[in-house]
Amino acid sequence: MIQSISRFMISLMMVLAMGVFLSSSLSAVAADAANSNPPGANLFENEEEDEDEDEGDGILHDAVRLNIAAFEIRDKDFKFESLITGTYAQLFQAFEGKADVIFLNRTPVIKDGDVLNFQQDALRMVGDNLANDGLNCTFSFSNLSDEDSQFYTISGLCNLMYSHEEGTRKVRTVVKRAILSEANYGVNAWISIYEDKEAGVILYADVDPK
Q1: Per-residue pLDDT tens for 141-157?
Q2: How many CB atoms neighbour CB 113 within 10 A?
Q3: Which of 77, 90, 135, 148 is buried deepest, with most CB atoms within 10 A?
Q4: Exposed e or buried b for every residue in 153-167, given b needs 16+ CB within 10 A?
Q5: pTM as predicted
Q6: What is the 3-state secondary structure (H, E, C) of 57-112?
Q7: Which one, of 108, 192, 193, 118, lies nearest residue 160 by Cα?
Q8: Distance between CA atoms of 70 and 121, rounded to whole angstroms?
């Protein structure tokens, strides 16, 4: 009987000791988990933040819209400015009564290397000939922006078209590489990219954020 009680007591002590060991081990694991991931922390939080940062880098710079405006002078004594800051309405106000708009275009979203075409002309019969009157331009757009700065340029060719009895007279002009302003919300910086003083025609360009 005494031997049975002794064996029972030894077994009971072993069970209690095992329980204490398991409890201590679980507490240590829980403490480590709490230190590495505070309450409420998301195990995937850092990964999601990194993805958001990657997606956010350069969003403003990657894709933009280009505004092109062309004017023809009416007042021969009027001189165009090389830079006009303001909205579309303010741009028109600057030329009111002094120059006529030939066209004003806003492109779809464009990216580096895109080729753009702008055309505004009237096709008519002049005597016995079909002729055009207007402007036709093709530009190459470059977006060399990075995370720290914005850098946009355009260059290309324009045909000024004049209708005559003999047909269409074309004046081909080269638009040299022009650096454009930064793309900012609510602020338009219209930069002169080409001017034909003899014909009295000027082109302005502006970049808008996507």
Answers
A1: 999 998 888 999 999 99
A2: 9
A3: 135
A4: bbebebbbbebeeee
A5: 0.68
A6: CCHHHHCEEEEEEEEEECCCCCCCCCEEECCHHHHHHHHCCCEEEEEEEECCCECC
A7: 118
A8: 12
Give strand pairing partners of 99: 73
Task: Write the CA distances from 13 to 5, 8, 10, 197, integer angstroms.
Answer: 12, 9, 5, 105
Which residue carries 């029972």 as its tokens?
8
pLDDT in tens, 155-184: 999 998 989 888 899 989 899 999 999 888
HEC sequence for 132-173: EEEEEEEEEEEECCCCCCCCEEEEEEEEEEEEECCEEEEEEE
Beta bridge pairs of residue 169? 162
